[in-house]
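I am still getting used to backbone structure tokens and would like to learn alongside you. Please make up or recall a protein chain and show it to me in full. Would you write everything just below, so we can both look at the same thing?
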Amino acid sequence: DKNIRIVMKEFPILTRASMTASRMALAAHKQGKYRAFHTALMRREGVLDEAGILETARATGLDLARARREMNSADISDEIIANFNLARGIRAFQTPTYIVGGRILTADSGDIDFAREVALSRRK
């Protein structure tokens, strides 16, 4: 459906490692590899720690030296702060959070009937 837009925001609220993963994901975006990194990280099994995040970044072809510099840059910090402020503004306090037609949904994606939610939002 070409009339649906998916916007992903890094919102690191789970563990200390989630902040590292979010920063690395934004650094991957600067290298044009956000989707590859994000997908690989979500498919990763086991405990998520800094070593695993770096291993995933390496496996997705990121320039690690560049990514490590960029992940601590002011613009990435500013983006994460802006995401926290956005979440606070819409009262989204958990992940995942989805917004469909102005309705905030906080269940796991497998538990949401997105086709139904989109159809409902289009009727309004």
About this structure: Strands lie at 98-100, 103-105. The mean pLDDT is 91. DSSP finds six helices and two strands in the chain. The first strand starts at residue 98 and ends at 100.
